[in-house]
Amino acid sequence: MAPHLALAAPDLRLDVNLLDYLILAVYFLTVLGIGFVARRTIKTSLDFFLSGRSLPAWITGLAFLSANLGATEILGMAANGVQYGVATVHYYWIGAVPAMVFLGVVMMPFYYRSKVHSVPDFLRRRFNGQTQLLNAITFAVAQILIAGINLYALALVMGALLGWPLMLSIVVSAAIVLAYVVLGGLSSAIYNEVMQFFVILAGLIPVTVLGLIKVGGFSGLTEKVRQSAIGEGGLHAWAGTASGDNPLGAHWIGIVLGLGFVLSFGYWTTNFAEVQRGLSARNTNAARLTPIVAAYPKIFIPFVTVIPGLVALVLFSDLGKPDGPQYNYAIPLLMGDLLPNGVLGVAVTGLLASFMAGMAANISGFNTVFTYDIWRSHVRKDRPDDYYLRLGRWATVGGVVLGIGTALIAAGFSNIMNYLQTLFSFFNAPLFATFIIGLFWRRMTPWAGFWGLLTGTLAAFASYILYKADVIDFGTELNATFWGAGIAFVVDAVVSVAVTLATTPKPESELRGLVWGLTDTTLADDSVKGDKSWYRSPLVLGAGALILSAAMYIPFI
């Protein structure tokens, strides 16, 4: 291997020139300009937090995807490509698309037509205020921690680009995101996310194409991966999963139930940072289509994240080793090695766009839940709307400041995707159990919602602590999150059933529009012209996404 390819973390400085900086400057000005334009539309707290519920499905769908296409997707999935190989595609084809379709077809109508402003607000109406508060607090903590991941990754690239110290890069990056979210609220975040989606692709596609050319195309990449540390197993998604003998160290049960069901459904169907994009849609059908529109490009994202990870695996043999750079550095290393100036500027801009989109989604979700579900519901009720609008802006500032602190936590992880999946197993897996049981079992009681959620969350923490203490051996940290999520789900479900049998349920009159089979007949049809067409049918488009996702596995079994 050529000496310049054996890079350590301090050698990441990218060879940028004036053209690259100019491209970056134009992007930053555009981002802030969108914030200033969006600010003119902010008249009420509904405008700030939910864009006035006025956006079409293609806008909310791309924003839905872009909000997820942050640091964890770009750096994290490429890092997983280096560490685990092709098995990383499970996060997309079984770990995302089915849950996104389920959200659109089944769950989004309950969210949207009940006119709730958040997932915790739905839990308040379905269960009680205590369940709302518990979920609001855990969600707020999770969003700040995840914002820290995005902020750390953003600062990592800024440091590579400019040679700045990590802390300075974190503060400057945070200030940019803070500016446009405070100015324009969710509308600013969403319109920036749509633009950022295309900028991200413009940055990642050249890395993928030039990387494949350098290693001899797909055939050359395949041969070199066989000779790498992960070997033949790194080229297959399902081979060896019956015994756990695969780079992921996972059994197919953990992949299907832990990742494919509990973790993915828990994240995509209950994570308000994503659901919020659907709630900003103009009507119920547009809200249902939001995650389904996002599912189609999601199917193809592995080609610009996992494949670059495999390329980095064969080009930089010291990745993840004690004397080499972290797995997280795979994409920046490829950019510096492969891209000419100008294209390098576009790629750096695409990376920054992805991290800003992810962090903006975390912060816009945090400010809504803090303002509505913690402060207005449990601290200061019945204040004028202007009061909550101002509070939302201050909550945005507070969220960004806290995110700066949690970015330092993320800096301690060699693979930030492992860290993120651990957080999902803590916060999303038990929430999904509470939500899905409460949605389909009208008998479930208010206190069952609270105690199930609390014990499920504690079980997830206990599982992880026992793994870290070597009391339980799950093989790899990633596999530990699969099983931890499953344990949290089961504990939540068992406790929910037990508490339900010992407590009194809500009357059905209070559950209309909140559980399956109890329709709220007072709600008017909000469909618009064209909603009845097959190409706007959530069922038809959702089925197409599932079939396409399953078909993508065929070459990689």
Secondary-structure map:
Layout: H1 18-39, H2 45-50, H3 57-68, H4 71-84, H5 90-93, H6 97-113, H7 119-126, H8 129-162, H9 166-215, H10 217-226, H11 252-270, H12 272-279, H13 284-300, H14 302-315, H15 330-338, H16 343-378, H17 385-410, H18 416-440, H19 446-468, H20 477-502, H21 538-552
Q: Would you list the SSEs in sequence order as H and E?
A: HHHHHHHHHHHHHHHHHHHHH
Question: Can you tell me the overall shape?
Answer: globular
Coarse structural class: mainly alpha
**What is the CATH topology descriptor?**
Sodium/glucose cotransporter
CATH class: Mainly Alpha
How many helices in DSSP terms?
A: 21
What is the CA-CA span between the terminal residues?
30 Å
CATH architecture: Up-down Bundle
The counted number of beta strands is 0
Strand content: under 5%
Major beta-sheet overview: none
Transmembrane segments: 18-38, 58-79, 91-112, 133-155, 161-182, 194-213, 249-268, 289-316, 343-370, 391-413, 419-441, 448-467, 482-502, 539-556
InterPro entries: Na/Glc_symporter_sf (IPR038377), Na/solute_symporter (IPR001734), Na/solute_symporter_CS (IPR018212)
Subcellular location: Membrane
Organism: Sphaerisporangium rubeum
Give the key terms.
single chain; mainly alpha; Sodium/glucose cotransporter; 21 helices; disordered N terminus
